[in-house]
Design brief:
single chain, mainly beta, SH3 type barrels, 4 domains, 10-stranded mixed β-sheet, 5-stranded antiparallel β-sheet, 4 helices, 28 strands, about 10% helix, about 35% strand
Length: about 400
């Protein structure tokens, strides 16, 4: 989401005539300037109130500014929330009768909002961060809403810096880089992302969607993984791989890099609860190399922990390893971790996927990705913090 300046203007700390403000409370901005923004809202005297995402302006290095509406153009978020049944936006994901009047806001069917992000929450709720409205007595833009009452379409990935850090041109210690090869980025800064992949030495390689940083105006950088969090779904990531593996598989398979025979009915780990049939869809998806096999084993250990955390309830596997052809066919992301074997889409008996997400997210932390759809949960071991929810259509 961006604001584009279409006529030379002033960003101001108050929505009043610029002549009424001292120089310290206004900043000249030239035609053509574009800023990523976290939120915007109509304000007094024909102004927009905009919150900049990754730039601080003015003498006091401020991120909240007012702009004269005729001088700017808002490019809204591609993620839209539509209310399809009269509902309540709530400050907690609980039944509305457990909340005071100040902790909920009535929203009529048909209302539409732009979103920054949305994530699963317990009790079949969605946690939505609204970008174009501040609601309630305290003007909040983060709310919980009952999932069946809304429709969400569109995708957007955001990277949030959660600790002062350095963006780097190589995934190495910052002391090994020259000043021109690194850039200080402050805690709380937010960028829209085009893509991201794990990199060496516990780093993330990321391509920023529209921010060009450093003396050479680069948009591809490395960041130390614990210093950043990524939220939002990749474009076209709506997997339709929901058919479960055979409950009583037969036969055997050969795996690349291993001389022994593997039986589909056998557990991946000695004494474990997950089989090679579940990992390979009854032997129909044979790993392309031994690294994929190691990925399957790695996430199998994680799934045993997941099972224990969730009370040793039965877990059904929808999708584990996907070869490239299958991944395209079922609508997986182009960089899906299912391709490397260390991702699982699963269903836990008796627990809604959003509740599974809520219980696992703090535990899983920055070890990998976690997401939920209305009918399954996804976990992967990519090695950095990524969270998302699948579109609600």
């Amino acid at each position: 989401m961006k604001v584009k300046v279409i006529s030379d203007t002033l960003f101001k700390l108050k929505p009043i005539l610029s002549g009424e403000l001292p120089d310290s409370e206004k900043v000249f901005v030239k035609t053509g300037a574009v800023f990523e923004i976290e939120s915007y809202i109509a304000s007094q005297n024909n102004h927009f109130r905009v919150t900049l995402a990754n730039q601080l302006l003015g003498q006091e290095e401020t991120k909240v500014w007012y702009a004269f509406r005729p001088d700017v153009k808002i490019e809204p978020s591609p993620v839209k929330l539509e209310v399809v049944s009269n509902t309540l936006f709530k400050l907690k994901p609980v039944q509305s009768d457990r909340l005071s009047a100040t902790e909920k806001v009535f929203i009529r069917s048909g209302a539409k909002f732009d979103l920054q992000t949305y994530l699963p929450a317990e009790g079949n709720h969605i946690k939505a961060t609204i970008s174009n409205a501040f609601l309630g007595s305290e003007n909040r833009n983060i709310w919980y809403v009952y999932s069946p009452h809304i429709r969400i379409q569109g995708t957007l990935m955001k990277l949030q810096v959660v600790s002062d850090t350095l963006f780097k041109l190589k995934p190495v210690l910052s002391g090994e880089l020259s000043d021109s090869e690194k850039l200080f980025v402050k805690n709380g800064t937010v960028f829209e992302l085009h893509s991201h992949v794990p990199a060496e030495n516990n780093h993330v390689k990321m391509a920023l969607s529209s921010a060009f940083l450093g003396p050479e105006n680069r948009n591809t950088w490395y960041a130390y993984a614990p210093d950043v969090r990524i939220e939002g779904n990749e474009p076209n990531n709506q997997p339709r791989d929901l058919k479960k593996a055979d409950a009583s598989p037969r036969g055997s398979i050969r795996l690349p890099g291993f001389s022994s025979t593997f039986y589909l009915s056998n557990p991946i780990l000695p004494g474990g609860h997950f089989t090679w049939a579940e990992a390979t869809k009854n032997g129909s998806r044979i790993p392309v190399n031994k690294n994929v096999v190691y990925g399957i084993i790695r996430i199998a250990r994680v799934m045993e922990e997941v099972r224990k955390i969730l009370g040793n309830r039965p877990i059904s596997v929808n999708s584990w390893y996907r070869d490239p052809v299958t991944n395209r066919r079922v609508g997986g992301a182009s960089r899906s971790r299912h391709l490397t074997g260390d991702a699982v889409d699963f269903v836990v008996a008796g627990i809604h996927p959003y509740d599974v997400y809520e219980r696992l997210s703090p535990w899983w932390g920055s070890r990998g990705g976690l997401a939920s759809a209305r009918v399954f949960t996804h976990i992967d071991a990519r090695g950095h913090y990524v969270r998302w929810s699948y579109e609600l259509v």
